[in-house]
Amino acid sequence: MTLAATNRRSTNKKRRPDGGRKVVRNVARATRFIPASNPFTVPTRWVKFVFAIFLLPVCAILSQTFFTIFARATVMHRLWAGEEFWFFSLGAVLWLIAFLGLPRPIVLYVFGHELTHALWVLLMGGRVSRFRVSRDGGHVVTDRNNFWIALAPYFFPLYSILAIAIYGLLSLSLNMQPYGRLLYAIIGATWAFHFTFTCWMIPKNQTDLSDQGTFFSLVVIYLMNLLLLSVMLILASPQITFAAFGADLLTNLSNFSQWIVDLFQGYARNR
To answer: Which pTM value belongs to this model?
Structure first.
């Protein structure tokens, strides 16, 4: 796959004779004749933009909670001293060195990208009638498309999920405990694979993002990746529970709500 081709990868819907929709890259900009819209119809992109604005406080509150919990786990619970942290970090660092210093496995990324699209199509009750990956790019042909399907490759670390699933399946019949450290390293490497390629691809005019609204897409991608990191942090630190994380989240939400109330009250008094 050439870099130019990579820059144009996206999830789009195109009508086909069999009624399906094709998730493909835009190879060239086509001239389209757009009929006059109903003046009372609000474009979906506008709705998504407004919705993304309301998601910003959610991102801020979740970010505050995550970094507070992470600092607490690192300082008070010595998360950095655990083997989970070190082997995860080792895998991530090794992948980062490979990403920066070796030829990038674009085909492997494209395969994971398109497979993630296909899996989310199935999760949404759709049907995949064609799946294709090559050095020049890839696409899936499906009868369903929405923003979850379009953005899934940017927040769903497929290879990390596969590693955990394989480890879990093998654990049903084998003693996999001695390979726990290897699992942490693989998760670190595969998550870093997901993170680096996501950061590398987002600035390249991805129509996956622009078709859904770039601002909306970036907010959703950030929020979903932060949720994933929060879950990983809770699972990696025995001293941190979902209940404790939820309690901190509610506290930060309460503080934010009080700040909004004080802001409006101050504005009302100054009028």
So the answer is: 0.79
